[in-house]
Amino acid sequence: MTEDDKSELDHKAIAIETFNATWDLLDKDMRSAEDNDMMVHAAHTSRYHWGQVGGPTEAERGDWQLSRVYASLGKGSEALHYAKHTLNTCLENEIGDFDLAFAYEAMARAHSVNGNWSEADRYVQMAKTAADAIEKKDDRDHFLGELDSIPRMP
What we know:
Layout: H1 3-27, H2 33-53, H3 56-72, H4 76-92, H5 97-113, H6 117-131, H7 137-148
Helix pairs in contact: 1-2, 2-3, 3-4, 3-5, 4-5, 5-6, 5-7, 6-7
């Protein structure tokens, strides 16, 4: 194994490990301020390492996770920033199926966090349309459950 091969393997392993660690923190019922900081650091670390060894799909999934992290923290501006990256990457690279649906979900969630209810609703509708093209029923059902978790106008 050459040094370049080892470096690629390390990037991928770190990207996977920190992506999963981010999910563990997102799923945690009661996060401390330290947990929140670690979640942000883990998500950025994962995205960085996927940028070293992944392609457009890994990049958009990393950006989606960053959007979700920031939305969960109530940081709408940051959530929208990464949601836009996610959607643009999907559209520019013709990435569809659940990735495109989740890109619209990220836009809807970010707009919801920002209190922009009309844009949130518009992207929810786009996400529902995209969900129709999700090939696997289990993926579609999971996606629709996530879409339902977006806060709606009070």
